[in-house]
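Worked example 4.2. Below are the chains of a multi-component assembly; read each line carefully before continuing.
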Amino acid sequence: MSAIALRRRTLPGFGLTMGLTLTWLSVIILIPLAGLFLKSLELSPEQFWAILSSRRTLNALRVSFGLAFAAACVNLVMGSIIVWALVRYRFPGRRIFDAIVDVPFALPTAVAGVALSSLFAEKGWLGAPLAALGIKVAFTPVGIFVAMIFIGIPFVVRTVQPVLQDLDPEIEEAAGSLGASRWQTIVRVILPSLAPALLTGLALAFARAVGEYGSIIFIAGNLPNVSEIAPLLIVIRLSEFRYADATAIAVVMLVVSFVIIFAVNRLQRWAQDRIPMH
Amino acid sequence: MTMQIADNVSLSSPDAKSRAHAAAARNNLRTEPRAVRLVIITLAIAFLSVFVVLPLVVVFAQALSKGILAYFAALAEPEALAAIKLTLVVAAISVSLNLVFGLVAAWAVAKFEFPGKTFLITLIDLPFSVSPVISGLVFVLLFGAQGYFGGWLRDHDIQILFAVPGIALATTFVTFPFVARALIPLMQEQGTQEEEAATSLGASGLQTFFRVTLPNIKWGVLYGVLLCNARAMGEFGAVSVVSGHIRGETNTMPLLVEILYNEYQFVAAFAIASLLAMLALITLIAKTILERHLDEGQDVNDH
Amino acid sequence: MTIEVKNLVKKFGSFKALDGVDLKVDDGELLALLGPSGSGKTTLLRIIAGLDWPDSGEVSFNGEDALAQGARERHVGFVFQHYALFRHMSVFENVAFGLRVQPRAVRKDEATIRARVKELLDLVQLDWLADRYPSQLSGGQRQRIALARALAIEPRILLLDEPFGALDAKVRKELRKWLRSLHHEINVTSIFVTHDQEEALEVANRVVVMDKGRIEQIGSPDDVYETPATAFVHGFIGESIELPVHVEGDVVRLGDRPLALKAEGLASGASKLFVRRHDMLVGPPGSGAFEGAVQHVRNFGPVQRAEVALSGGQTIEIDAPRDRELRAGDTVGLAPRRFRIFAG
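Applying the procedure described above to all three chains together yields the following structure tokens:
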């Protein structure tokens, strides 16, 4: 009997394509990332801790994570409003606004950075009126916050939009016919259905904002301990040849992003189990 | 009380009116009062205008602030031309590498069953969740003077960091998932029936791929390449870490934007930025068109 | 071409799709694999085609080991359940595909390919659709194009997976006749999978009844209908009355009532009695093995279908000719013209 043939696959090329995929994945992604973790292992736990607990590092991490979370929350609220308007209402320019949501995805971050910086500078189109009100945006933490909102908005919109679109209209009609007010229907029926997508959008926007560099550094002012983000501190440490410091900060950020993707994956699976596809 | 109102309506109005009321009531189940609708639409438009439209407009306004001649003069600078050229070269390298990888990986993942498939897809997605700065840093740690291969590279006189190979590598890293991610779901949805049919009709693996699979996924391939290219040309953080900012040599367009901006050459900075912004807009338009093609492809699939 | 399958086993995880299947197919046969979904019939077909691989067992064509070859080398025409037509190719190109991908050394020239495709399209009576695309065809048309495409490579064997499954009832009936006459014309060893007994009995020379990865019976359509080999086959093919009985020596009991049935050579113990609905003859009370009260009568063309509550408590449905009208409330005697008893 032909024992080799027994384990055969119908379509050809599995061994070849799988081998190439794993090789290429290792060369471009896995080995470089492993190098980072290996490098961090050269540090003793005390050194590692000393780097992370230095005032400047702690402040940079606080600025990145804190503002990213605040921006993601704003994106959650504004993103929901935008999704609702785009999916449920008809208004002139709706399709254009729908397409425009993707601009922060497509616009190179450096371009977004100089544009936001120029817009919110003291003499800029928005900076001037805000300055008249006594609000300074550019070169302050508020600037970082604004840039993070800019880059995060498509994540919330594009995760929630398809879910709201596919929501069965009958569940709302059922709620209404059972006597629920519109507000009750939204809070008790629609929002729970959207919850996994909303959380996913929040997590994605947060993860992106934490790691963001290009669109922030122009508007941030980059004052150590005040408006210096963690990615910038990595770049600064690299330019000072303090590789250990750069590596330690990078590892912390990387671990946090991996935890976030893991959580998002679980969230997606949970949502699929809870609300099975038709 | 409800009864009373109902009675009043039926007494005071003819049938047509009560039918209209019933229709209105049904509509009301799925929408909000007019005032609420207006507020929501206004908020959405205002937010998108301030945070998305205005930054886009300001790029072009600043670029043209000294007139069209200054704009073109800025673009004709040798430094600008060098940056444009380098950007095109780097994008061509990393897009073609990722195109080949994307096709190969999508074939392996979508057409076969094997344990650990979900994990493999997560690994392919990894670069999406790595900060661009870290994407550059990992290559500095590998190929930099103090890096793992730094000594060996110096002995053999090979320059990776602060040169085109390093920039291309970092760009390939950040754009790694685009083509594969565009193709995997598409090919999974299309299944393996057509490929099986081709095989049973005697087609070889390559014949099956080029005559049956590729024509079915061509819009998906284009879609992935488009997004991959946009990111490759616009990448800033990762490239900034590995480039070394050597003027006229290792500056891509986004890096040149930064340098010119920091030197207060606003017209020049925004002129380059406007090219990148146009790339983004063209990408978005092409993406919208391609998405329509992809939807149509699925409709045909449904029969 | 003869096909021989020996002791085929195929598992998907812990599910046994094929559990030791043996089958011989003679040259020029038109064989039906009949069974409920999950019975393993499609898996068997795909293994013969080389689209799936067994965990153990043998498949040979004309005595040659077929498992040594991939789907590509086997020269088997396979018609997929959902046709798997190439969406981006015209009907003509779909049919021509198998000819165009042949190795250069044996590939026919363009004129020959065109002539051959035209011939095949004529054969399936769809030459006028040559320039259309699959999405522009009806289900029945796609089915026939898929068949023409499979025939283009001059297959040694033709395999069809639920060939009429996705079609509506009327088209299905037309295509059945057409497939039988086509098989007569081309005379290629053919196997088709179906879950529709009527289809299997009407089209095939021989029927293989499968359940849970095993073959229950192989025989002519008459055999499987008239002399079912197992309880499953009796229950699956044709409409049967099934009653739980107890056999002791040559006495058959329903509940504690002995039935006036001759039971010879049966194993004692709990058994199942099968009678075709139309084999239950209606007579005056006390005349047959059973007695019961008619509950409900409906007319179906030439027969009347009556629901009868047996005195033992069970309710059965019988089909009686309409020459003697039954009425709800009648008490009747029932005598099975033919019956079978299976142990278990």
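Take a moment to check your reading of the output against the notes. Residues 55-88 of chain A form the longest helix (34 residues). Chain A touches chain C through nine residues (CB under 8 Å).
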